[in-house]
Write a structure and sequence with these properties.
- This protein has 248 residues and is mainly β.
- The protein has one domain (3-167, 224-247).
- The chain has three helices and 15 strands.
- The strands form two sheets. It has a 13-stranded mixed sheet with strand order 1-15-9-8-7-6-5-4-14-13-12-11-10, with helices on one face. The protein has a two-stranded antiparallel sheet with strand order 2-3.
- The protein is globular.
- It starts with a strand and ends with a strand.
Length: 248
């Protein structure tokens, strides 16, 4: 099988396209520092939805926020274990947009596509191996252990509530009522982190399954805005073809 070097045509462009996506990933991590708490016993709480249901929530979360809906959502945010499809757009101050789609099978395998203008780059992470396609319909390059290094930025990383650290200082969460999210109705929450000047984020999770459905962020200081929507279909990740290996 032909082996390519890490300096092959197109990689520099590919990395440039990923920069804004890396920014998105960092923003996502900041948002989810909101409800990190030390482990605690769980408590049952009834949350009103389209059909009233009883959900299990974390007692530490209830103590901090006194909001059974928000705490029920916190019990349904382990995206790394879920099958999902996330579609998003990030726009910088100059008005340049990068769109991306992330598909996850819930087992660590992902299919990620980024588009900026006429440029497109795709990555498949499967069984610990990363495959990169530098343009639509082009050859896939394989990056294996011991070969060239390539990390595919995933803008959905960090979207997980947990309770094993202290709540981040300077973060406020405000309930904003409900809003339409596609064909569903969602609870809407405003998140502000005082350490990010000009930054405001909104989290939307549905009123029935308490699953993340939309996440938006705007920053009046940097001019960056981000919008992500989530759905939860069955996802299967397969090895792309044709594939060429890379070497250092």
């Amino acid at each position: 099988m032909p082996r390519l070097t890490k300096n092959d045509k197109g990689l520099a462009t590919a990395i440039l396209v990923l920069i804004i996506v890396v920014v998105v990933a960092v923003i996502g991590v900041v948002v989810w520092q909101v409800t990190k708490k030390s482990p605690s016993t769980t408590a049952s709480s009834t949350a009103s939805t389209s059909t009233t249901k009883t959900v299990t929530v974390n007692a530490a979360c209830l103590k901090d926020f006194s909001d059974s809906k928000l705490c029920a959502f916190a019990e349904h945010t382990a995206l790394s274990t879920m099958q999902y499809v996330a579609v998003g757009t990030a726009t910088n101050a100059a008005g340049t947009s990068t769109s991306f789609t992330v598909k996850s099978d819930g087992k660590g395998d992902k299919d990620i596509t980024y588009m900026s203008g006429s440029e497109q780059i795709s990555a498949v992470i499967l069984d610990g191996i990363t495959y990169v396609q530098e343009s639509a319909g082009g050859t896939w390059y394989e990056y294996t252990t011991g070969g060239s290094s390539f990390t595919a930025a995933d803008p959905t990383l960090g979207f997980t509530f947990n309770f094993n650290q202290a709540t981040a200082a300077g973060v406020s969460v405000t309930k904003e009522g409900t809003a339409a999210c596609g064909s569903l109705t969602c609870y809407k929450y405003k998140v502000i982190d005082s350490t990010i000047p000009g930054g405001t984020a909104y989290v939307y999770f549905d009123t029935n399954a308490y699953l993340l459905r939309q996440w938006t962020s705007t920053n009046t200081t940097t001019g960056i805005s981000v919008n992500l929507t989530f759905s939860y279909p069955a996802v299967t990740i397969t090895e792309p073809s044709p594939v060429q290996q890379t070497t250092t």
